[in-house]
Amino acid sequence: MKYDPNIHKRRSIRLKGYDYSQPGAYFVTICINQGLLLLGKIKNGQLYLSEAGQMVHKVWNEIPIMYPGVETDAFVIMPNHIHGIIVLTENSNPPRSNFHTDNQSNHTEIAPMEKSMALGDVVHRFKSLTTTKYRYGVQDKNWPPFVKRLWQRNYYEVIVRNRHSLNKIREYINNNPLAWEQESEHWEQYHPQPDFF
């Protein structure tokens, strides 16, 4: 069916009127398109990352290096999604970036831009870079291919309001592999509404 803007309206899941570039902590969930189990497996509550999962983990850990003014906190990779906390700090002029890849070395270089980053900028760059690297994995290392796109469109986010919330979210992230086996059929358990925290 052809796209019809009167029928196929994409609902925004961001908080209306909220400035997502202001300093603060944000709990994000980003899901693999079509729920494919590409990032690893969980057995007896233990997470075993695939090569692709290891790549995603490395890119996440490099976010604070690539983007001044952006820090990361608790993080977990699940077989078909990730949970993590992104922290935007007071640094008012971190570089945005354009990705370009040197085909000979497969290294991605960051070209700085002027405007400060919002949460959506960080998530977009994370998804873009991991998708590029995943494509190389499919081409060079026989990783399982994805369908159309690696990540689902958009992402889920919860604004972390206070220290109590932050601690609950950290606990939730750390316990996610155990919950995966116990209640894997309950989507709400993995993607709670903001008032959960």
In short:
This protein is an alpha+beta fold. The chain contains four helices and eight strands. 32% of the residues lie in helices and 25% in strands.
Describe it.
By secondary structure, the chain is an alpha+beta fold. It contains four helices and eight strands; from the N terminus they run E-E-E-H-E-E-E-E-H-E-H-H. The strands form three sheets. Strands 4-5-1-8 form a four-stranded antiparallel β-sheet. Strands 2-3 form a two-stranded antiparallel ribbon. A hairpin with a 3-residue loop joins strand 4 and strand 5. It starts with 23 loop residues before the first strand and ends in a 7-residue tail after the last helix. The N terminus is likely disordered.
Top keywords for this entry?
single chain; 197 residues; alpha+beta; four-stranded antiparallel sheet; two-stranded antiparallel sheet; 4 helices; 25% strand; globular; disordered N terminus
